[in-house]
Amino acid sequence: MSRRPSDYDESDVRIRPSRRGSRPRSKDRPGHEDAVPARVVGVDRGRYTTLLDEGEPGERTVVAMKARELGRKGIVVGDLVGLVGDLRGGPDSLARVVRVHPRTSVLRRTADDSDPVERIIVANADQLVIVTALANPEPRPRMIDRCLVAAYDAGMDPLLLLTKADLVDPGPFLQRYAPLEVPTLATAASPDGDLDPKGIAELTDALRGRTSVLVGHSGVGKSTVVNLLVPDAGRATGQVNDVTGRGRHTSTSAVALRLPGRDGWVIDTPGVRSFGLAHVDPTSIVDHFPDLAPGTGQCPRGCTHDEPECALDDWVASGKAGPTGAERLVSLRLLLRSRAESD
Predict the structure, then answer these.
(1) Are 253 and 291 members of one domain?
(2) Count of domains observed in the chain
(3) What is the pLDDT of residues 68-121, one digit of tens each?
(4) What Å distances lie between residue 190 and 139, 174, 187, CA to CA?
(5) Measured CA distances, 155 to 82, 106, 111, 118, 313 (Å)
(6) How far is residue 221's CA from residue 129's CA, in Å, rounded to a whole number?
(7) Would you place residue 18 in the very low, low, confident or very high pLDDT band (cuts 50, 70, 90)?
(8) Residue 119 belongs to what H/E stretch?
(9) Is the peptide bond before 137 cis (omega within 30 degrees of 0)?
(10) pTM
(11) Interval 192-226: pLDDT, tens
């Protein structure tokens, strides 16, 4: 028997509870005026190791997580941030990163020249130390050229560090970069197998008072150098594969280490196999080849610098680009072609 509408009362009606509270959601976010400044020295799976009260008697390491209000904003080694929460430090404390301060510089790279996703390696560094071995593994000038472009694009000063100079004379290789006036240093192993103290002392002087990032292929000796610069760093070291001639990855994440005497920072990064420059404007790439850029003054309007009418060929032939100008021009054009193909 069906019921008439008049037979129903309020107890027969089921009301679905609302998932939203009665209080309207506010768009205001806390200002965190009490946030304490800190430096990010390590990143590991969503946890940020920071240094609090840097240089003060109460200096301590604090582990933090990113606050929800930061959204998808990335945090990298070298960032200066604001912390709230448990700031005691120690294994049982966890703070929150609520603010990322403006960066003075950002070192970026992409997986290759066609990758639209850029990866920020470090922030707030002012010197890029390009580490390459003279042998075992063999040096790759194209990689060095790419790192130089990335350094100039980020507004960082480059420094070329050659390792294993006891195996090969660095002089001929350095001639390639003489016209650029890029500072260079070389380290060699002593008879007892350790690195020559003189080379490490010169490198320490070059790093003093600066925030320097070390980049290079696996197996070139980055971690070995870092362990000598910072004796308690404990960075893992590896060997070069005898078959492929490539180094094995030993560092899995970037880490900032303070030099002895608290006079500068060195940031060790994982070894890389490629250094994409998809984030660099193709029209500005030639400007980052300072030995070749002056020769573009006679180029026709709209010159791509990779065509028969390009004036760079005459510039190189005249010797104004230095004895290795032809090799440098090949490197520039290979990079321009890679960007053109990706575009």
Answers:
(1) no
(2) 3
(3) 989 888 999 999 999 999 999 988 899 999 999 999 999 999 888 888 888 999
(4) 21, 21, 10
(5) 25, 9, 21, 17, 28
(6) 12
(7) low
(8) strand 119-123
(9) yes
(10) 0.83
(11) 666 778 888 999 999 999 999 999 988 898 888 98
Q: Is the pLDDT of residue 141 over 80?
A: yes
Domain that holds residue 210: 106-268
- Surface-to-core class of residue 301, CB atoms within 10 Å of its CB (0-12 exposed, 13-18 middle, 19+ buried): exposed
Q: Which of 6-20, 167-181, 273-287, 289-303 has the lowest mean pLDDT?
A: 6-20
Q: Is 65 helix (H, G, I), strand (E, B) or coil?
A: strand
Asked if residue 123 and residue 95 are part of one domain, the reply reads no
φ, ψ dihedrals at 124, nearest 5°: 65, 30
Residue 18 within any structural domain of the chain: no
The DSSP call for residue 309 is: T
Distance (Å, whole) CA 230 – CA 265:
10
- For residues 10 and 341, give the distance between their C-alpha atoms in angstroms, rounded to a whole number: 71
Q: What is the pLDDT of residue 73?
A: 86
Enumerate residues 6+ apart whose C-beta is below 8 A from 181: none
Q: Answer yes or no: are the C-beta atoms of 64 and 96 closer than 8 Å.
A: yes
Whole-angstrom distance, CA of residue 226 vs CA of residue 234 = 9
**Which CATH number fits the domain that encloses residue 78?**
2.40.50.140
If 0-12 CB within 10 Å is exposed, 13-18 middle and 19+ buried, where does residue 290 land? middle
User: In whole angstroms, what is the distance from residue 163 CA to residue 225 CA?
Assistant: 9
